[in-house]
Amino acid sequence: GWRGIELGGDADADADAEALRAAAVAAPPLDDVAAEQGRLDADDLRVAFGGLDGSVTLYSTALDPLATVAACHGAVRGVRLLSGDRIGFGCRYGTAGLAHHVAPDHALVVEHHVAFPAPIGMFAIDPGASMMVATSGATAFIHDLRSGMTVRRDGHPEMISAVSLPTPGSDAITTADAIGTVRIWDRPAGPADVLAELSAATFGASFAPDGRSVTSFGPDGAVRTIDLAGGAVTELRGHTGFVAGVEFASDGETMATASWDGTARVWRRSDGKCLRVFTSHHSVVQDVRYLDR
Asked: Band of the pLDDT at 197, cuts 50, 70, 90?
C-alpha cells in the first residue's frame, strides 16, 4: 500500500510545479544523465565504483585496486558497500545483485542476481542486504532478498527521481518524482514460514475443510498430509503414477485422489487407510469429485 503527498496547493506552489514541469521537459532525461556517470560509495576502509562498462571495482581508501568483477551488461546504475565484505549493485538493463570480496584471492564474486522486468533508472539496497529497490520511469520494484519475491509499485505521475529506504524504527520506503509527488510505501511482507520440506516434487495442494492441514500431491504417487500446527507429514501410498488431484468430502472425514495410474482412491483422513480403489477406468484419471445425494 502507499500514502501520497502532493506538494503544492496554492498559487505560488502551482507556479513552482509548473516551473518544475518545464525544467523536466527542457532537461535531458534522467536515464540519459545517469548513463553518463559512474557510481561511487565509500566507508572508512573501502571505496566501491561502478563503471559505465558494467564493472564493479573495490579500492582501498588510498585508491589501490583490490578486486574487480564484470557485474553488469551495460552501465552500473548503483553501487553500495554492505557489511560482511559485500557490495550491492544495480545494472542499467534490468538486473541487480550482490558481490562478495574474497580478499585472499583478490576477487569479487557475484553471489546473487535479481532480474527486474524493466531497465533500471535508480537503485538502492538496505545496509543489511534484505531488500533492493529499483526504479524504471514512474514505477518502483521492491525485491525482498529473503523471500525472493518482487512487488511492483505504481502511482507516480512522472519519473521517480529519489528513493529513500527504511531507517531504524520504520519500515516505510519513500519515493519522489520530478514534479514534486512524494509517496510512502509499506515494506513488503517478510518471507513465508516454511511449513515442511518434502522429499519429492509437489504439483498441487489442497486445504482440508477444517483448515487444520494441507494435502500435497505430485509425480511420485504419494499423497502427503501436512499438519499446519506442527508441520508433521503423513504419507499415503498406493498410487503407482502421477497424482493429479485431491478432493475432500463435505464432512471432512474422507478424501478422494485421482491418478494417472488409471485409478481413483478414497482415503479415511483420521488414520490414512485406503477405503476403496476404483479401477474401471481405461486411461489416466485427471480429476475426482464427490456428489452429494
From this structure: confident
Q: Would you state the cell numbers that stand for residue 82, as one nine-digit string?
A: 554492505
> Residue 77: is it exposed, middle or buried by C-beta count within 10 angstroms (0-12/13-18/19+)?
buried
Residue 148 amino acid letter: G
Tell me how many degrees the CA angle 67-44-83 measures, rounded to the nearest 5: 65
- Ramachandran category for residue 103: left, alpha or beta (phi over 0 → left; psi -120 to 50 → alpha): alpha
The reported pTM is: 0.59
Asked if residues 159 and 138 have their Cβ atoms less than 8 Å apart, the reply is yes
Region of poorest pLDDT, from 80-84, 174-178, 191-195: 191-195
Give the three cell numbers for residue 227: 499438519
Element (H, E) at 259: strand 254-259
Residues 6+ away with beta carbon under 8 Å from 137: 118, 121, 159, 160
Measured distance CA(78)–CA(92) in Å, rounded: 9
202-237 confidence digits (pLDDT tens): 888 888 998 889 999 999 999 999 998 888 999 999
